[in-house]
User: What shape does this take?
Amino acid sequence: MLAGATAAGLLLGPVNLLAQVTLPYPWANLANSPAVWAVAAFAVGVWGVRGLARVSVAGALLLVLAVESYYAAAVVFLGDDSATLYNPVAFIWMGFGVVAGVVFGTAGAWYRSSRRWRANIGLAALGGVFVAEALKDVLSGAFGLPTALILTGVALLVPLVLGRSRRHRLESLALVVPLALVGLVGYLIAM
Assistant: This one.
């Protein structure tokens, strides 16, 4: 699984950069969304190896490599300075990648759990990160209302599409906002 997480991380960064420079507004903003990157760590948890420690390491590895491959792609394709690979901003994003990789890798593993409360929290965490980012963007004025509306729409679709039963969908949907508020606090502390 670490090989898969490594490959996914090395691919996510350049694909993300390509989407940012080719997609029209407001879709390009989604490419640069930490919530979208969290989906990759969640996927590692869903389809990854068993055991929370391994899932956490794989999720963190994926996102740290995605940060570096993003900056490397910017150096190669956009002519950015190679110092961006090791500047303080890159290290900050890698630190966020470790935290997000652990949290959303675990959320993905919980989503596949047979324990209802874990499955609900895991799925709601994925929806919640989209709402948290939408709220953060509106409060900070980062991307504006169109992007926030798309993020919120995705957040609502996550439990509805990925829920395994009507009950799972409804219980997860009910947890999206409380978990989004926790995520918003995390965003605000990080800012």
In short: Helices lie at 2-22, 27-31, 34-47, 52-78, 88-111, 116-140, 145-162, 166-190. The chain has two domains: 1-112, 116-191. Residues 52-78 form the longest helix (27 residues).
